[in-house]
User: Which sequence fits this backbone?
């Protein structure tokens, strides 16, 4: 009994010691894990040159972002930034793919409704005289075809009537015909001439009628006005269809063509839309506003559109196929444009791009990206502030998205890849060099011997990789150290069936 009582304290001491050792080991492991994840420094999100050794606030009041040491066993391009999933979630990082799209630009502007000048008609007198019995009170009145506008007293017209009556009395048919033609040439209506012949008497005044429906756009006479052939008396305009004069920005002028569809709305009739077309594109820009004048034609059967109204105009231009990304992904700096590429597994890198036309929320990419790559559309400024420190932004990563042919020598064969010494690639600005290429699943190199001269078709794939999509073996000719034939002519790919 006494011996058992002596062993119990020893067992308790051993248990407590074991727990202490285990706790110490756990603490040590935790400390090592924390030490492995210790940030190198903290940087301001909007100013990569602002660094601190401890957390804090940037001069703009934003939380400093920790920068961790990259794993040494992971091969990366300069400027690649790795972000943990937790940080990605906190930043709200979103990405979109680079894709080829059909972009259809829409030019939106304002316009001013005007008369269709093709419908304008001016009324002039062909003789001197005085206006009497004017039936029009003011501009803007509507007159119907055949309506009497005014009477004109003219000694010339009175003399022409007397000549006709004298010719009728003489019975000379040639003289009668000549007298009637003179009255017609003086713009006397045929029904008025018939009335003179029937009544066999002259009329002091001759009535003038309108030959079409229209609105009075100009009224330059009153009762008693003296008129001459050089004076415009009345101008009529139709509102069956109208012109809309619009101005578009100089940068949009290349989109506009005659015949394109246009739509229009006005404030006083909300919800209603008129459909028309581009009727004419003026040949010069306004020197003050630097805008291009465009004339649109719209049908106006109910005459709801009035001259000098302002309207909102949209012109649907022809679409074009382009490599495009969301416009919000582009970071515009003073000297260049760039985006942040998502490389996968939490890795990102800033790259330089060249943009073209912007259509809606999409922007055309001319250089720097390929189909299938992904770009960051939110939180890209935070990622770019760190990536741009070391990234090479002096050149474009993607010289050309089109495949190229290049001659070379097969040096090594690997699993899914080969090493080739090739000559210069002027399309991509490459010098002669030895490099690895990935193989397309359709390319079989098992029968190609090492050292063989080959003709390769290479394209850029996603992730900045280059792969061989076609291969031809060439006849055995000596090659220099750059991979080019010694004194041979260039390869004729057309003759080889490429």
Assistant:
């Amino acid at each position: 009994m006494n011996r058992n009582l002596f062993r119990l304290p020893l067992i308790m001491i051993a248990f407590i010691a074991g727990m202490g050792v285990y706790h110490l080991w756990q603490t040590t492991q935790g400390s090592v894990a924390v030490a492995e994840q210790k940030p190198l420094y903290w940087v301001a999100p909007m100013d990569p040159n602002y660094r601190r050794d401890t957390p804090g606030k940037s001069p703009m009041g934003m939380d400093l972002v920790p920068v961790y040491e990259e794993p040494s066993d992971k091969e990366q391009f300069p400027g690649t930034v790795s972000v943990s999933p937790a940080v990605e979630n906190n930043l709200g990082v979103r990405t979109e793919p680079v894709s080829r799209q059909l972009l259809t630009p829409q030019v939106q502007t304002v316009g001013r409704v005007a008369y269709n000048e093709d419908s304008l008609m001016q009324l002039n007198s062909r003789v001197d005289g005085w206006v009497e019995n004017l039936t029009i009170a003011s501009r803007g009145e509507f007159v119907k075809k055949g309506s009497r506008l005014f009477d004109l007293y003219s000694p010339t017209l009175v003399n022409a009537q007397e000549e006709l009556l004298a010719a009728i009395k003489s019975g000379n048919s040639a003289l009668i015909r000549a007298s009637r033609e003179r009255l017609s040439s003086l713009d006397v209506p045929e029904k008025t001439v018939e009335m003179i012949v029937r009544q066999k008497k002259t009329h002091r005044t001759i009535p003038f009628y309108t030959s079409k429906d229209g609105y009075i756009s100009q009224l330059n006479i009153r009762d008693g006005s003296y008129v001459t052939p050089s004076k415009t008396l009345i101008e009529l305009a139709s509102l069956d269809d109208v012109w809309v004069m619009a101005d578009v920005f100089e940068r949009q002028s290349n989109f506009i063509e005659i015949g394109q569809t246009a739509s229009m709305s006005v404030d006083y009739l909300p919800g209603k839309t008129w459909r028309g077309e581009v009727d004419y594109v003026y040949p010069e820009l306004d020197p003050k506003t630097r805008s291009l004048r465009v004339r649109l034609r719209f049908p106006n059967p109910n005459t709801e559109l009035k001259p000098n109204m302002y309207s909102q105009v949209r012109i649907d231009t022809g679409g074009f196929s382009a490599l495009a990304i969301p416009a919000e992904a582009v970071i515009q700096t003073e000297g260049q444009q760039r985006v942040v590429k998502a490389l996968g597994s939490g890795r990102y890198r800033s790259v330089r791009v060249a943009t073209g036309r912007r259509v809606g929320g999409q922007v055309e990419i001319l250089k720097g990206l390929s189909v299938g790559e992904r770009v960051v559309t939110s939180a890209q400024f935070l990622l770019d502030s760190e990536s741009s420190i070391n990234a090479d932004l002096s050149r474009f990563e993607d010289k050309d998205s089109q495949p190229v042919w290049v001659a070379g020598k097969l040096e090594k064969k690997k699993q899914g890849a080969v090493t080739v010494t090739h000559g210069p690639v002027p399309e991509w600005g490459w010098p002669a060099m030895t490099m690895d290429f990935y193989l397309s699943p359709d390319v079989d190199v098992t029968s190609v011997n090492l050292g063989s001269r080959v003709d390769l078709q290479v394209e850029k794939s996603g992730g900045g990789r280059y792969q061989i999509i076609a291969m031809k073996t060439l006849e055995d000719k000596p090659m220099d150290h750059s991979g080019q034939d010694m004194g041979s002519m260039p390869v004729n790919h057309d003759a080889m069936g490429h």
The two ends are 99 Å apart (CA to CA).
